[in-house]
Design goal:
about 160 residues; mainly alpha; about 80% helix
Length: about 160
């Protein structure tokens, strides 16, 4: 049974928490191919790193429906990518500022807090533009991220499905 091979595979057990393994194994049991799972996961992780808080879940559902991906796996990838999203905020924001010729948002917390309390609309303008720049850089990197993630996840799932204890 394919799902048992995935659950008992030492590669999968070593690096991935058992709840996730069980969910993926159940999907394989339902007949979803490793390719579809890998593509859904790649899209979910990639969308989960978008440097805009609060929109990734909706984007994952929309992309999954448009491309006929598995919504559950796409959301799982999105949720798994949340720590990565936080880590990638600064590189995306810095790259956006560099690409568009602006100074990156730097400075101490007190001056940022003072600005936000004194002129809320100016703060929104500043952060909105910076966020759009970061999202543009993410959009440039996203196709490569999807390809690399898909190319990395698919063989692991196929190997896990083919081997098992």
């Amino acid at each position: 049974m394919p799902s048992e091979k995935v659950k008992n595979n030492p590669i999968m057990r070593k690096y991935i928490p058992s709840r996730i393994i069980t969910q993926i194994a159940d999907l394989l049991k339902q007949g979803i191919t490793p390719e579809k799972i890998a593509l859904s996961m790649a899209w979910g992780i990639t969308l989960g790193t978008l440097p805009v808080l609060g929109v990734t879940s909706i984007l994952c559902i929309a992309v999954a429906l448009v491309f006929r991906l598995n919504v559950v796996v796409t959301q799982l990838g999105n949720w798994l990518a949340y720590p990565l999203q936080i880590v990638l905020f600064i590189p995306f924001f810095m790259a956006g500022a560099y690409l568009f010729g602006y100074h990156p948002l730097t400075g101490d917390l007190l001056s940022r807090t003072t600005l936000s309390m004194s002129d809320f609309t100016q703060t929104l303008r500043l952060l909105g533009g910076t966020t759009l720049q970061a999202a543009f850089v993410w959009a440039l990197a996203a196709p490569l991220m999807i390809l690399v993630l898909y190319g990395s996840i698919k063989p692991v799932l196929k190997r896990a499905l083919a081997t098992g204890d």
